[in-house]
Amino acid sequence: MAGATFHLYTPQTHMRFVQAILSHRRCCGFSLMEEGGAAYLTPSELSEVYPQTRLRRGDAWRYRWRLRDAHFFEPGSDHVFAVSDEAFPGASNRIVLPDAFAPAAHAPPPDCTTVLAFTPTMTTGRTELDTEFKALRKVFAYLRNEGVDTLHYKLHPIQFNSDEAREIEDNLPTIADPVRVVRLPDWYSLEGMARADSSLLFVVNRSSIGLYASLLGCRVISYSRLIDFLEPQFSGFTKNQPEALLRRMHFLEPES
For the chain, what is the largest distance between any 2 Cα atoms, rounded to a whole number of angstroms? Predict the structure, then answer.
């Protein structure tokens, strides 16, 4: 429509294509939407974890000088839409969405009590897969002591149909033994499962599903500190976890 304007709804503003859309002459404003743990970081924590992205001259020319140095959350949003009142700390334009999680399109499997949500830290080069397997041996020892006999797991979308997925499928049954492991269909919604059954136990490395499952009443344990111990360079990825996440999860320690 000639002369029409648009308002952008986005979970972040630091990516180049988002900056290009924001600088479009017909963009009349933008609002932020919560997506993951970054929304729970204070402004100072956010600047440490996601420092301002400096614009390179080549990018400036490529985008016809429409870009500038980018913040993860650009100031000046009309609104910020959140799942809880702890998101976007200090924001005066926050709107907390009631009942933000959609009803599950499917119930958890009848025998599902414990869910492992994989994080794509291996795919993105932050850790080695062998390190993940070593940590998971300790996780399963803990779960056996908790009386868990079956665990359902879900891969991160980045891992679907990858060599990493095949290695996980090949090795996880041996690592878990005698706990039985079952892969959930890729289209399952973990948030939907948590909403449908708050008695589920979620196991995560570092994943926003841990935060959202806890907000929905589920118990959550994290093995990120085991990864830190086995692969210290990973600690830079885990040290600035939001306080809202830290107090809601039980962290397995290397000596446990």
Answer: 66
